[in-house]
Amino acid sequence: MTRSRTKRTTAALVVLAALAAGTTATTASAGTTACGALFDDFNYSSRTDPNFTGHDWSVRTGAGGPGIPDTWTAANVSFPTVDGQKSLQLKATTNGTTGGTTQAQVQQNRLRFFEGTYATRFKFSDTPVSGNDGDHVNQTFYTISPLDYDWEPTYSELDISEYLPNGGWGETGPVNFITSWNTYQADPFDGWRKTTVRNWSHAGWHTLVTVVAGGHVKYYIDGALAADHTTDDAGRNVYPRRPMTLNYNQWFIDLDGHTGSTSSYVQSADWVYYAKNETLTPAQITTRVNNFRSAGTTHQDNISC
């Protein structure tokens, strides 16, 4: 797999908070709503809804990579009803030129996501909502820390899903990359990581669950184990070493596949859940989310307790 990218830079509002690390993850019962968790049902009116920003989310704008530099656009973030559920939706558009390209990203602002269980219900799309198909678009959910310098030994990143419906990075068809990182060098790009490649369509809704505990990063899709990462092929540790932010974005790895006028692609997230220092099964996550919804709870954040 040939892979080249510029350094990922989260929004300027990210707070470099120091969080305690190294707590041992524990198991929990299915119905328990534990202290130390984030749940968000994405029940917001718009990206400017004060509850959205008040819940520690921000929308990226302005400069930097990955993808086509300096094309991050706030207007590409919305909260429509998708298949009956209010959802976070990110749009990416291109006419094949840098000036005609827009990308989208939202993130939790603070570095407070480390060991525990991550989950989201995510809708991937294989075709654009308008325009010609064929662009090398990347639909993602991931956690990441800053890279303070090349080959920084505490750098941490989990690409829970990077879905390229039209291929890219050496693949010609739909492909989902699941990647756990040790560290990397920004320019020229070189990195140490462990990647699992799933070479088939993932279009539609899927529940993505990642469990970070005991030296293993286990990735589940729709309840089935998709990957279990501990080290890269050279034996370097890919288990996170420091707290991270939590992010969604949609971007183009290049503009090589474009034809015609403007094409627009969307990805959607129904909800997100994180349980700090807990090892949960996909079934337990589903129970907890259903309990939140049954109680009419659209947001809860007590990670710091």
From TrEMBL:
<protein>
    <recommendedName>
        <fullName>GH16 domain-containing protein</fullName>
    </recommendedName>
</protein>
<dbReference type="InterPro" id="IPR013320">
    <property type="entry name" value="ConA-like_dom_sf"/>
</dbReference>
<feature type="domain" description="GH16">
    <location>
        <begin position="21"/>
        <end position="283"/>
    </location>
</feature>
<dbReference type="InterPro" id="IPR000757">
    <property type="entry name" value="Beta-glucanase-like"/>
</dbReference>
<keyword id="KW-0732">Signal</keyword>
<feature type="signal peptide">
    <location>
        <begin position="1"/>
        <end position="30"/>
    </location>
</feature>
